[in-house]
Design brief:
single chain, alpha+beta, Alpha-Beta Plaits, Rossmann fold, 4 domains, five-stranded antiparallel sheet, disordered N terminus
């Protein structure tokens, strides 16, 4: 490792990026290079919304985790005692992978956790994550919402959007909507707009040299200027979607002022009703070494340098929407020229076969089949899968009328103009009139199930984990009267999805099986 760092150190010292650092921090280049070349430590964030959060914390501590002191939200964040992707203990590798895949933790660079903490999300907020993929910040927002409010996670790139969906699914939150839009032209939403918006913008990544070593060779000064035009476009649209009194965070993993202070100054000049929030950096990130923005107009911004915190470089600006005499975002209300005009009603395009639609009366029978209390829940359907979200998603994004920029009115009862990929979580897979619970739905909804939920002893759980598929006739009387299809097994307060027909088959992911083995003391 030392030899590799030494080689990178010599290479880095001759790079265009090193010249930028020397310009920004005269006489401090060598100090910065000492911390800009080694590998990052492995860092994780704990999902506080899982009922077994204390068990997860205990397991992490057993593996040598140390708390990240400046991370103050519930659940906590931790540094593991190894470099990223360099753990020498195979059991620990399996544990961390299973915890992440099952949504109990998120493997995330520590500096990447800062923007959401700066956003100061409150339960009940409507939040837009404008540049959401791969999803670590989206799930962090959902954790801060603690089951109420909602987060709209947006990603324009189809491949990255699929990755975003996967990360949202493993988290298990029912209040997340994934959409695919160009952030520069994000559609209008219903009034009053978003309470909080995160724009963790695409950037050159000049602060990420410890994980993206290509930056040393590829970065050129003109790249920041080119990227800043995209960043201003996205941030400008977000400003129009933010309600008066709302908070917006702009962040990059770049150290280039062209992508940071320059972007902030342009947006402040363009929208005089935006202002930078005067952030007490020491209170927001206790114990973290931070610096202010580089210009008089951006001194309330936050800069984080690699060498001062054993992490990556980051930039954060916190805006507030200060428009007086208004209660809704500019991109939700009528243009002044149309204030005395009645909007023209328009109809939405029919939903396609694979579009997510509101569940019909037949779909809703799933709730009664499983004996579930449905207060606060909405059911959606796409193909073989039934999804469940909180009602707030339906009420604001589906039911509410939306006014277009041409003073036309969508009456509600559809997603348009949003392109929605997922709402809430897929909960059931349905085939040939039979259905089963899938892992993504267990964590949020299993506690509501009263039908087809069977208690099993430790011995049967172990047999299933060992790959056995016992015949129905060999099982207890409780199994004999069940219909063929999905069931939930309960063992030592753990829910286990399974399939019951002539035999009983386990339907758990590999990650969930690993977790159950740990809890049963089999590993």
């Amino acid at each position: 490792m030392a030899g590799m760092v030494s080689d990178w150190r010599a290479h880095a010292a001759e790079s265009e990026l090193a010249k930028l650092v020397e310009e920004l921090r005269p006489g401090e280049l060598n100090v910065w290079l000492d911390s800009a070349t080694p590998r990052l430590p492995e860092t994780v964030r704990v999902n506080p919304c899982r009922k077994d959060v204390e068990w997860t914390l205990d397991l992490l501590l057993q593996m040598g985790a140390t708390p990240i002191d400046w991370f103050t939200p519930k659940g906590g964040a931790f540094t593991m005692p190894w470099e990223k992707a360099r753990c020498g203990n195979d059991r620990f590798i399996e544990n961390i992978r299973a915890l992440h895949t099952s949504g109990r933790i998120t493997r995330q660079e520590a500096a990447s956790m800062m923007p959401v903490q700066a956003l100061e999300v409150q339960p009940g907020d409507r939040v837009l994550d404008m540049c959401a993929a791969p999803g670590s910040k989206t799930t962090q927002i959902a954790e801060a919402l603690d089951g109420s409010g909602l987060v709209v996670a947006n990603e324009p790139n189809p491949g990255r959007a699929n990755n975003l969906v996967s990360n949202v699914q493993r988290s298990g939150h029912l209040n997340v909507v994934v959409v695919r839009q160009d952030g520069r032209n994000f559609p209008r939403v219903a009034e009053p707009g978003f309470d909080r918006i995160l724009v963790d913008a695409p950037c050159t990544g000049t602060g990420t040299t410890r994980k993206n070593t290509d930056v040393w060779a590829t970065w050129k000064p003109h790249h920041g200027e080119h990227m800043s035009r995209l960043q201003v476009g996205i941030l400008s649209r977000a400003a129009l979607l933010l309600r008066p009194g709302g908070t917006m965070v702009y962040s990059t993993c770049s150290i280039d002022p062209m992508e940071n202070e320059h972007v902030v100054e342009q947006v402040l000049e363009r929208y005089p009703w935006l202002s930078l929030k005067k952030v007490n950096r020491a209170e927001l990130f206790p114990g973290l070494n931070t610096r202010p923005g580089r210009t008089d107009s951006t001194e309330d911004c936050i800069r984080v340098w690699n060498d001062e915190n054993d992490g990556s470089g980051f930039f954060i600006a916190v805006f507030t929407q200060d428009e007086e005499g208004q209660t809704s975002a500019r991109a939700t209300r009528a243009h002044p020229r149309d204030l005395d005009k009645v909007p023209t009603p328009i109809s939405a395009k029919p939903l396609g076969k694979m579009d997510l639609r509101l569940g019909d009366s037949i779909d809703l029978q799933l709730f009664s089949e499983w004996g579930m209390e449905t207060h606060g829940l909405t059911l959606w359907r796409r193909g073989q899968y039934a999804h469940v979200s909180i009602d707030a998603i339906r009420e604001w994004l589906w039911d509410s009328p939306r006014l277009t920029g041409k003073h036309q009115l969508y009456p509600g009862g559809h997603w348009q103009p949003l392109r929605v990929l997922q709402a809430g979580q897929p909960v059931w897979k349905i085939r040939k009139e039979r259905n089963r619970f899938i892992s993504t739905g267990v964590h949020g909804l299993a506690e509501r199930v009263t039908n087809h939920c069977l208690s099993v002893d430790r011995a049967l759980a172990i047999r299933l984990l060992d790959g056995e598929e016992p015949g129905r006739s060999t099982l207890t009387e409780a199994f004999q009267g069940q219909r063929d299809g999905g069931v939930l097994l309960r063992c030592e307060d753990e829910f286990i999805p399974a399939w019951l027909a002539g035999k009983l088959s386990l339907m758990m992911t590999d990650a969930e099986q690993h977790i159950l083995r740990l809890k049963l003391g089999l590993l």
